User: Fold this.
Amino acid sequence: MNNKLNILFICNKSPWPPHEGGPIAMNNLIEGVLAAGHNVKVLAINTNKYSTDPSDIPKSYKNQTKIELVYIDLGIKLIPAFLNLFTSKSYHVQRFISNNFRDKLKEVLLKQNFDIVQIETLFMSPYIDTVREFSSASIILRAHNIEHLIWKRVASITSNPLKKAYLNHLASTLEVYEKNVLNKYDGIIPISSKDAKFFKQLSSKPVKTISFGVNTSKLVSSSTTTKEHALFHIGAMNWIPNEEGIRWFLEKVWPRVIDEIPNIKLYLAGREMPDWLTDLKLKNVVVVGEILNAYSFIRSKTISIAPLFSGSGIRIKIIESMALGKAVISTTIGAEGINYTDRENIMIADDVSSFVKAIKELANNKIICDEIGENARKLIHEEHNNAKLIEQMIKFYDELI
Assistant:
């Protein structure tokens, strides 16, 4: 089938501006589908955690996506969070349920016929029933992660016993919800082959892996950019795995690095820097905070660190750093979903000693650093080309209609 499709994207965040992982992943799919000649409508939640002023969205983007936003307060409410301990419901999912959003979704479905309704992330699953009631479209889950696995991993590295117990409760209720809701979809599109194995075990519905894709015409390394031979980390710090990973790195790894390479610098960039980081006073650590142009920042440094010990899916900032020809040092968990070869196109380090060793090797040998970065660029441009991945996704759509 090569007909033009009408596709509704239901998003847990506004895909514009694409300033952090989730919005970037959603926006790349949306722009890719539009470039392939299909019709798109975007209905997204606007939240206090990732707030978008509709007037800031470019007119051309509004015209193409017909984007509409509905506000939901996702702030943690102490009493509901406490009472949730005595229920079997997932507090993560419950926060996304809104009569206003349901009413807007109904209005959209009654106004236009869709071939595909793509629900971005598990957390928007409560709206499946509304889609079924007012549309005959095939409903797809775009699974950015195995959501409960993130919280299991976070709980496993938490030392405070009360916090650990609460996180385990959140993970357990989310796991039950995640496993039970999968067969309500018509198809599932996970972001990594490892995640696909999980969904295939639990769902009888078609599963197709579509990884995160980059626009190779935009993400090219620039030989004219002045590069500082330095370490950097970029990522939203309101995502627990990022904050936990950087805390571990600064406490355990950085003292040894600075002892052995006294002049090396580390730059930390990203949204929502916590106070403990903005107030940080560590030798040669520069807390940049939120930046306007992530690609310019990435281009300006040579070595990316991604010390992740929890999370799931695929790490978009790692993909983008590799696509821009940077040497990346990450953990095995951080590099999940990438078809890498250790020491050829990435450096894998799962403990303090191996992280220090990798940093020393790349910092002291610019030739090896550049070689790994160039191999990384080739890998991502070959396996994560957005246009090719969109072709695969549209083919999957056609098989379901």
The domain at 228-383 is CATH 3.40.50.2000 (Rossmann fold). The chain has two domains: 6-213+385-400, 228-383. Residues 90 and 170 are 7 Å apart (CA to CA). The chain has a mean pLDDT of 93.
